């Protein structure tokens, strides 16, 4: 160091400062541990009370930083996040605490059980069999008791020594006190370091000691085995019975390993448990295995009491069988625990792995010792007396006692030794804390040396002294290099000084008397500088890990490389400002400004300082360079100003040019949101309007104004209610003429009747449970196979009649009961009596006939009555659609049920009974297991479509259906392929006899003949021709489907007459492809005619799985078969070329076909609900007769499609 540096006499030495900082860092680690414990207990750290920055920020970075600061802990806690356990570690800690609690309770249960068994044996054994042991048996018991006592004492003393070494204050403080205080300190130290598993181990040894003590000095029950004739010391078995169960439970409870992530023992797809926490049966298996071993030893207690050989043989066989379950259980746990820790594992993973290995070692030890005990039993009791030579030790009556005592001592001592390792590895909180603190030290050292932001730990040297500050190596990268480091980059300089921290001291002169009320968070003025270079009294290199001067200075060509004192003063000024912050967490901006010592060039760095106060005399400051953020902010500010100006001008021009033309589009666009929720029904309505030649609808971008949103909701609700009324009216006409065929599907009846099934809601559905309650028996109801629209209309009509006949504003109860024995569903609607109820009751059965008679109304006067007391009747009747009870009877008849109404004295009950079969019923003939359905393995996929987009979609559709790419043929690229399609399919079927063919054809195929004339060929007619040309044995293997956007009932009937089924042109997700094909395929090939065996299904399933990794540009976001925005834009460009010339009306046939293809592509977008308005514009084009109107309408359509494509592309980029 330079000799010219001053050293104040009152300033502590650098070694003392290093010790202070090192101690502060150590205290920081302990405080962090406490903070982590506090956080785990559910307490939250205090939030930053004050945070203002005058330095500008970019909008994007400001949003990110605000969100991060709102949801993240303090910066100090984030810096020391390695100490904080993750969710997996928390679950593991909870499991340890839970098992520890179980061990403590089980230890008490062990003592109680042992005492109970001892008392029971003394009472049950004959008095002549209760004898005092003598000779070798007594000496063996005394020896075993002594060995167990010595082992217990040694382990207990070891536990006290470890506890005192960990900082337990009780032993040392009690040495100067009386004996009571000394023993109280011992007891507190033992209790502090005694975990549940260690308490259980000591309890096992105490029980074994007491057993040997009773056998050595008191009369003990000794019985003769009725089969073997050997002496059985019953107290030994009374000890083994609870101890074995408890030792097994401790062995199982110590094994707290379970797979929690893909990095564990198995791949992600094979793991049984990928969520946080153990499997549901994790603890159950432990209890079951412990109980199994307890029962096995309990059968040994019963051996001397067995009345005969068969009973004895049953007990011994069962006991051995139960014991042998240890081995498969051990192998199971061995397979679940990985053989080695994976590379790059975290600290928590290493902790869990080491705990699992230790627990597995305990299992090995227990299993080995218990196997030795079982083998010793058979040697000493079963085979020894029978096969031993005369004079052998095995023929001695005391042989059993010796072998049992030896086995007992061996098992207990080895178990306790291994249990201590388990205690320190898993259940000892002090050992776990020490390991985490060591990892924290390594983590902090790594963060300190590799952090890109300078970190400063500052400690006050005394009440009148200055500051001792330790600065991280990132300081050397501030402002770039100088001197020999001039040509090095910041990162190269940081790597060069990676282990070179700076310890410097500031004199008291750096802390002038400042009015704290005038201190702001913005310290960017030159006059605010408080630290001058002369205030730095000394500095030196050091290392963070040691805190002492162990790092040597860098020397370049004989010249020592010292830090720039001016830069150090600029950083010290920031540290001094941090000391004036009173909050625990504080953030302020500061400009680091200094002039280089070598060339006097000024350096300015915009910085942000985050202060975390450790205590009254120490804090941490992280100084972040935000110069780039300031530059980005200024650039963004200029860009936003310019973009805002351009946007205002563009909006003004756009409003002037398009206010008349886009007026209608803006009005219709109010219900865009509801169109998205009801894409299917709106598409169906659009198709019906297209067939009737009505005009379509357009779409415009909806604004974000609240008034616009309110208008959208009101207009959308009105339109959808009108649409629903039209659908109900159409269905009613079919019901009147008995032509309606229910469209059944699996439905949740409660959801439908409560109005949650779709967008249609009414006052009595949308949450008015007080007026219109609904109860079900059973609750919840299973799903049933019903027509949802028909069921909803039926219930609506019943409620309408209940409001008409019942009390005004009264409660109308709907009760749905499923009778499983009758396979019938009964719906009862109960209402309170109205003001004409007495007359209805007097009419009897005539009233029921009038209710269900067509064209008759019993309460016409209620509807037209203008009296104030009946105004709600008129309101309800006008809101609830319905023509009377006869329409309800028609609905019930369509559902193959019946209905009735009963006018009782206190209520009116309307009952509807229909046959119902719940989901999963074997009587439902239409149940198809779509999840297990697979196409036959040798199926070919043949498709035809004139649109390039749809050709790609057909290919993906076949692939998602499980057909390999080499067995897919898609045609329609030119007129030759379309015209020769019939001949190709007929020839292909002849060459591939016996192989299934799935054929999908588009309905409208555009062809340009040799004379350049445009015409459309029906795909269903091509399929019909193919079926007529094929032989019956060939046509049996063909499944033909027609794919079209026109799904009207009449069109679908034509498609089904010409082909085998209809496939709507709509986006299909990958997981729904086979589900869609399943119904069509099963209709074509019933279950008893499919001929698909299990092997074929498995082969097809494996082939389908191979397509799961296909990179599909059309399904990368939702894995759906749908058009892409790029394809739509290409189609629009082609259409723009057609509209560019002035022969649109002359070439209208070709233009119409192109528009039809564009409509089909729009309907297969991922979000086709947004395209409904554009489809409506396409349908309305045929109503215009002039070229100018068509061009204008095309421009509107083009803008809508371009905006829709841009929106879809933006979603895909996100």
TrEMBL record:
Comp. bias (Low complexity): 13-27
Please list where the region (Disordered) is annotated: 1-71
Cite the SUPFAM superfamilies for this sequence: ATPase domain of HSP90 chaperone/DNA topoisomerase II/histidine kinase
**Could you tell me the keywords of this UniProt record?**
Membrane, Transmembrane, Transmembrane helix
Q: Which residues cross the membrane?
A: 107-125, 140-157, 197-218, 311-331, 362-383
Q: Give start-end positions of Basic and acidic residues composition bias.
A: 1-10, 60-71
Q: Which Gene3D superfamilies match?
A: Histidine kinase-like ATPase, C-terminal domain
Q: Classify the source by domain of life.
A: Eukaryota
- The Polar residues compositionally biased stretches are 49-59
| UniProt-recorded name of the protein | Uncharacterized protein
Which species is this UniProt entry from? Cyclotella cryptica
